[in-house]
Amino acid sequence: MGSGAHVIHYPLRRGELVSFVGIVERGDWQVESWTEKGDVEEFLRNFAGWHEDVHTLIRALDTPFKWALMGREPASNWTEGRVTLRGDAAHPTLPFLAQGAVMAIEDGYLLARCLEASRHDPQACLQAYQDARIERTSRIVRGSADNAKRFHNPSLAHAEGVAAYVDREWSEEKVRALRMALRIQCGRSAHRAAGVANALR
Length: 201
Ligand SMILES: Cc1cc2nc3c(=O)[nH]c(=O)nc-3n(C[C@H](O)[C@H](O)[C@H](O)COP(=O)(O)OP(=O)(O)OC[C@H]3O[C@@H](n4cnc5c(N)ncnc54)[C@H](O)[C@@H]3O)c2cc1C
Description:
Elements: E1 5-12, E2 17-24, E3 36-37, H1 40-46, H2 52-59, E4 65-66, E5 79-80, E6 83-84, H3 100-117, H4 122-151, H5 159-169, H6 172-200
Antiparallel strand pairs: 1-2, 3-4, 5-6
Helix pairs in contact: 3-4, 4-6
This protein binds flavin-adenine dinucleotide.
């Protein structure tokens, strides 16, 4: 993590490959594409001054690809009559909580359950699906956007700033409060899921 940027990397295929993504904030992106080629020199320039390990990973790339991440406020509705959306189409999310694919799978599961339970009334079923999903997905969309501010905090550009940040954000007291909030939230989600399952029976 650093000022205005962060990197993510993890091994794939038992360590034969490494997935490497560098995220840089900029406001001038106009290209709509997943296949726009970048180049290693540009990538290195974007991460000038970062740790040598980051540069080693960038230099090991053949052809980097670049694409825009567009932040959006959560939609308040994604169902009209007998038409609905799922996954990114319903709740496009910055990938900073690693939950986009997870939410798409959850949507698919719940949608299938709803359709199975009330084939005779597809409109009510699609509405029940959206009602069950909208609060959780909106929370994740907002949480992911909030993480951009955390990951790209300008004070993370120097060691003292990092130390102060970790002391503040990861104090025992704060972690305990977070754990408690998560427990309450998980309890609520389980309760809501049980409610949807009962309503569809
Ligand atoms: C850098 C990055 C890292 C990520 N990391 C994670 C992670 O760690 N964990 C996680 O859970 N999520 C992660 N995500 C998010 C995740 O990839 C998406 O949320 C997920 O793929 C959304 O699934 P989807 O089915 O909604 O859409 P997509 O996966 O985009 O699928 C839509 C499909 O529809 C096709 N399509 C589009 N238009 C048409 C058309 N007109 N006709 C026919 N087909 C069409 C597309 O080609 C595509 O195959 C990450 C995303 C990015 C960008």
